[in-house]
Amino acid sequence: MKSAQHLCGSHLVDALYLVCGEKGFFYNPKRDRGIVEQCCHKPCNIFDLQNYCN
């Protein structure tokens, strides 16, 4: 994932698993809309995803 992409739903979760690995990540769709705004409604890149790793 070199370029920015739109990632929604299970694609977003899969990308977080891939980027964060064993560190894990914090994602609560009912409370945390930031990543959805940043990566689903608009395209995001790997550096954006890393901000959500534990």
TrEMBL record:
Pfam families: Insulin. Residues 5-53 form the Insulin-like domain. One of its GO terms (biological process) is glucose metabolic process. It comes from the Eukaryota. GO terms for cellular component: extracellular space. Belongs to the insulin family. This is Insulin.
